[in-house]
Amino acid sequence: MNNTVCLVIEITSIIMYLLSATLMVAKKNVQTHGTGKKAQENNKEIHGTEKNSEKLSNTIWQIAVILNGVIVVNNWLVNGYVPFVSMYQVLTFLALTFAPIYIFMKYMRDGAWMKRYFAIASAFCMTGVCFMSGRGVWHFPPALQSVWFVPHILAYMIAYSLVVVAFIITVISFLKKKFGTQSTKKDKETKSHREVMDETVQKADLGVYNLMVAAFPFMTTGMLFGAIWADAVWGDFWSFDAKENWSLVTWLMVIIYLHFRREEDLKKYAKIFVVLAFVGVLVTMIFVNMMGGSSSHTYSM
Fold first, then answer.
1. Nearest C-alpha neighbor of 204 from the set 187, 185, 180, 182
2. What's the pTM value of the predicted model, to 2 decimals?
3. Contact 247, 286 (CB under 8 A)
4. DSSP letter assigned to residue 188
């Protein structure tokens, strides 16, 4: 496919991801009040609307994933190898990983409510893809021709996907708590509203914890595979490369979050480290490459 077709598919997938997330939010915000026969009829009507909205949202998300997959397959066919070399290829594949990870969180961690956040994360990655060039064939550097290449990158992709979603949930739940309660202080139903908000925040907090717990073993595995790979290629497990150092910083932020989250006195500070872990992901994946320098990982520009 030429660049124009790829760009159209990328933009369409972004729109589909965001539209899917919007429909999920709209479904969540549908409410009814009162009792009696009229209220019951309204409840039935709203329930039907919710089901239709959910089906439409699922269909749109599936279309977005298919379009995203088309770009990944195209990258694979054009280059002739797993599309993990350039940042364009990595972000395109990263956007695709959110769907299977969501399925895991849905069934293993009761995370069906996280769906819109995974859709937003995919749109976020695909937006970055639109500003990058996928033109040309990327030649496979000798350093990447290793059995550790795919498991190392894949482990980090899964870990970073989980951290990105945890960050999105953290920010949105903070904004809801900050501005959602203030707008209803004079309302007679403020207490009940605040209770609902507290339940929402607690649910989000538990969801973030589950995501970070799931991210930690993948991040650790990715670092371990990378060290073994580095020893095989460069003769040393750790060379204090910029990308290695920042991946270590990100790993430490996740560890600190998990420790703070378990301590009652420190729990209120835990979310700070979710934000810092996300910053670490951005620096590791993007800004280290932009800075260039003597990094041995700059082939992923």
1. 180
2. 0.85
3. no
4. T
Distance CA 275, CA 227 (A): 26
Backbone angles phi, psi at 116, to 5 degrees: -65, -30
Task: Spell 244-274 as b/e; 16+ CB within 10 A means b.
Answer: bbbbeebbebbbbbbebbeeeeeeeebbebb
Residues 147/246, Cβ–Cβ less than 8 Å: no
Start-end of H helices in 132-241 = 149-180, 190-234
> How many other C-beta atoms are found inside a 10 Å radius of the C-beta of residue 143?
15
H or E segment to which residue 251 belongs: helix 242-262
Dihedral angle over CA of 18, 21, 27, 31, nearest 10:
-90
pLDDT tens, residue by residue, 18-66: 999 998 765 555 444 445 555 455 555 555 566 788 889 999 999 999 9
Type of residue found at 281: V
